[in-house]
Structures are given as C-alpha cells and as structure tokens.
C-alpha cells in the first residue's frame, strides 16, 4: 500500500470528523498533511524550505551543550629536543656515566660526571 493512499484516507477522515466537536484538532491535522505534502514536493524539486529552521535549532542546541573542560596537549619528541635547555646533559652522556657506574662503581666517577648526574636527576621530573 502506498503512503499517498494512507494520507488521502486520513485527510478524508479528518474532513468528515470536523463537525463532531474537535474541529480545531482535525483542521490542524489537515494543515499538517498539506504542509507535509508541500514539503515533500519541494524536497523532490531540490528546495529545502525547512533549512532555516534547522539552522535555528542547531544554533540553539549549541548554546546548551557543555564546553569541554579538558585540554589535550600533545608534545612530540621533536619539540622536547628543540626546547631542551643547553645546560642539560644529553641522554648519551648520562647513559655512558651509568654504564661506568655499573662497571666500576660510583666512586670511579669524576667530579664533573657526578655533577652531570646530579643535574640530570633534577630535570627528570619536568617532562
């Protein structure tokens, strides 16, 4: 059964029910049927007569949407190396000092090597 036959049946039903006491309700249903028919014909020909109403409702919905309070920040490894402090020791130097400790012990380190490790240990909490 096609939809247009159902619409014709209900239009006829509402027309004959107007004198029964709920004339306003029946007339409003007929108005909805006429508007729906016009809207469907307009869409079929490429005209969306409800686009302005859709824009208004979308704008109103954006007013009531909660804003995101989470700020997402991504740091790439390239940014870290570019912003590295010049006084910070390089990872290769720290690794070689740690290898020396594992081979010979902490007492084998020079004063400069101990200072490099100390500075590196202070900077590990910043990343």
**Helix/strand structural class:** mainly alpha
Count of alpha/pi helices: 6
Instruction: Tell me what portion of residues adopts beta-strand conformation.
Output: under 5%
The overall pLDDT average reads: 82
What is Rg? 38 Å
Strand elements, count: 0
The domain tally reads 2
pLDDT below 50 for ≥5 consecutive residues: which ranges? Answer: none
How far apart are the first and last residues' alpha carbons, in Å?
Answer: 69 Å
Name the overall outline: rod-shaped
Query: What's the helical proportion of residues?
Result: 55-70%
Largest sheet: none
Question: What is the ordering of alpha helices and beta strands?
Answer: HHHHHH
What does this structure look like?
The protein is mostly helical and 127 residues long. It folds into two domains: 3-64, no CATH class; 86-122, no CATH class. 66% of the residues lie in helices and 0% in strands. It contains six helices and no strands. The protein has helices at 3-16, 23-45, 51-64, 77-82, 91-104, 111-123. Helix 1 (3-16) packs antiparallel against helix 2. It is rod-shaped, with a radius of gyration of 38 Å.
